[in-house]
Amino acid sequence: MTSDKFIRQFAPLIPYLAVLVGLYIFSSAWLSILLYHAGIALALSVIRGWEPGKLPSKLTEWLVLLPVVAGSAAAGLVILTMWPVIKLVELSLSAELVALGLTGTVWTIFIFYYFTVNPILEEQFWRGYLGQNSLRPTLADVWFAGYHVLVLVRFARLPWVVASFLTLVAAAWFWRQLARRYGGLTFPILSHAAADAGIIGAVWLLARAAGA
Fold first, then answer.
1. pTM here?
2. Among residues 63, 123, 129, 197, which one has the fewest Cβ atoms lying within 10 Å of its Cβ?
């Protein structure tokens, strides 16, 4: 088995191991995301799978990108408006963030890291290295959505965890189609960044309202 085939076979497990070690063993959000990103960087470096990306060059492409980015950012509004019915009954969001080491300046840095570095690395990995040109959902789409479940179960009720999983499968499929249609990762990276910014922004607002 070549190194590329070996890495491709086991690469989808990287975020699962990172979350289990970071969140569930060491209760550290930073450790979890850094382990995940280190695994991605190592895998992509070994197989030389980095893709630089390029900005849209046509007006029609910008006319597609802008509403896509705006729609992706709206994920945060959904969380803000639905949070009372999404969250676990016993959950104290501010206490959970403190337990994961997300306080003060560390929390602020994490927020910016989450919606800048994270979408670049994830798209390089999931839609770049593990991406396929298929119009149908792929196993990689499911793997991508699945590791989020390990995080979501700490915050959301089961029906919303399931709904989020299905939404993430659809998002993974959609970002793959953007990469396929526009010949690169710029569109999915920007859309993903907008979604991450909306989500982490909503969490910040909710935690602030709760006194974090």
1. 0.92
2. 63
